């Protein structure tokens, strides 16, 4: 059921309210009562972890070890946080070290590092409550669109906010908006794309009239949680209204259907050299670009990290394709596991989406070490996917018309198979 939050009727549509298809096919959870109980326990345990983590961030040595996480894990997590601005940050490892609480732990740390808690006079308990709500509203059963992806995007956003060309002009409000938008940009993602929601007459598609359906939902859900947590309730009403609108503008910018719109505008600004970052409007535009980069930066990471993300996003595509096949719907592009291979999907994504955006971002930042590092990773990763695709094609051609494979060929196929 849709719940109305706030005086303006912000809707926060919850999981499980999909009248046309039982989305429990994608989620093996049992009865809702059990889910509710587990969430309450998880909130309690997260709260305990928070109090311990907050002591660590303030440099207080704990008197006794935490029951849930041993000191080795906590020490490694603390060490990783000291290097949170490094591009080789391993979010998968960090999520394991924080017992699945990477998003909450990361955001608490970054709000502290950027001085946002002091500047906006935020209550730490309320901040944590809000972040737990956000983290729990991500679907952990999604291979890709989950809280770890949100944490990864947030860490990338932190790196981009430190780029000198941008950092020299950012206000505390800009920084808070950028981090909040990154953390919540995919909240309550159902694991399927907009065309799927439209062709199955999902209520979200009707609510948002088939326009930026998921992004509108992520934004509205975020505002609902902000209001419910009362994180910003102490600020003047006009300030909170401005924050809500700017969050919407940032999150809506992640709609991949608007990619060309933003690229054309960015190219125009760069060619004309008319970006004035002293102006709030131009700073907001570059925050939109930074969030778009953070959202699709996986191909610019180290190969081991990039490959994991590639496999995860394709697994999510394939799950949608299986669901479409089950309900006798046309299988969406990139969602047919029999035809759409991971290398071919990634090469196309890098060529037409990632490269044009990151080349412009490097032009904006002035070829900083970070931008050059990202582009180098992007080129190397693309070359590796091309090599894997070539090997796949060579292996396919080695199979005879009867479908039989020789012993040596079978060994090659198994070795080169991409999950």
From TrEMBL:
Reported cofactor(s): a divalent metal cation
Superkingdom per UniProt: Eukaryota
Keyword Membrane set for record: no
Top enzyme class: hydrolase
EC number(s) stated in the UniProt entry for this protein: 3.1.4.53
InterPro entries in alphabetical order: HD/PDEase_dom, PDEase, PDEase_catalytic_dom, PDEase_catalytic_dom_sf, PDEase_CS
Catalytic activity: 3',5'-cyclic AMP + H2O = AMP + H(+)
Protein name: 3',5'-cyclic-AMP phosphodiesterase
């Amino acid at each position: 059921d849709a719940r109305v939050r706030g005086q303006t009727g912000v809707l926060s549509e919850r999981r499980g309210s999909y009248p046309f298809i039982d989305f429990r096919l994608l989620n093996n959870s049992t009865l809702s009562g059990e889910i509710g109980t587990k969430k309450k326990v998880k909130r309690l345990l997260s709260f305990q972890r928070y109090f311990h983590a907050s002591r660590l961030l303030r440099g207080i040595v704990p008197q006794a070890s935490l029951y849930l996480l041993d000191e080795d894990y906590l020490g490694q997590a603390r060490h990783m946080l000291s290097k949170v601005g490094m591009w080789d940050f391993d979010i998968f490892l960090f999520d394991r070290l924080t017992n699945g609480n990477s998003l909450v732990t990361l955001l608490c740390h970054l709000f502290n590092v950027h001085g946002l808690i002091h500047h906006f006079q935020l209550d730490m308990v309320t901040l944590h409550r809000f972040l737990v709500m956000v983290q729990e509203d991500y679907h952990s059963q999604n291979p890709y669109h989950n809280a770890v992806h949100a944490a990864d995007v947030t860490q990338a956003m932190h790196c981009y906010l430190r780029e000198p060309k941008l950092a020299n002009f950012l206000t505390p409000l800009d920084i808070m908006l950028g981090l909040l938008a990154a953390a919540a940009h995919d909240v309550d993602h159902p694991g399927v794309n907009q065309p799927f929601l439209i062709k199955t007459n999902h209520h979200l598609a009707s609510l948002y009239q088939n326009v930026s359906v998921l992004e509108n939902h992520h934004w509205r859900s975020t505002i609902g949680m902000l209001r419910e947590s009362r994180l910003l309730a102490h600020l003047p009403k006009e300030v909170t209204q401005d924050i809500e609108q700017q969050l919407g503008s940032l999150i809506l910018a992640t709609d991949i259907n608007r990619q060309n719109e933003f690229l054309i505008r960015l190219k125009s600004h760069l060619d004309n050299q008319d970006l004035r970052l002293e102006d709030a409007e131009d700073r907001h535009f570059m925050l939109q670009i930074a969030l778009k980069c953070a959202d699709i930066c996986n191909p610019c990471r180290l190969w081991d990290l990039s490959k994991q993300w590639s496999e995860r996003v394709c697994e999510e595509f394939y799950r949608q394709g299986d669901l479409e096949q089950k309900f006798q719907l046309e299988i969406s592009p990139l969602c047919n596991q029999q035809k759409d291979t991971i290398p071919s999907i990634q090469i196309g994504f890098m060529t037409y989406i990632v490269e044009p955006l990151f080349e412009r971002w490097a032009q904006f930042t002035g070829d900083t070490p970070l931008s050059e590092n990202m582009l180098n990773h992007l080129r190397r990763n693309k070359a590796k996917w091309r090599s894997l695709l070539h090997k796949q094609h060579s292996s396919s051609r080695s199979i005879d018309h009867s479908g039989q494979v020789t012993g040596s060929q079978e060994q090659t196929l198994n070795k080169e198979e991409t999950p």
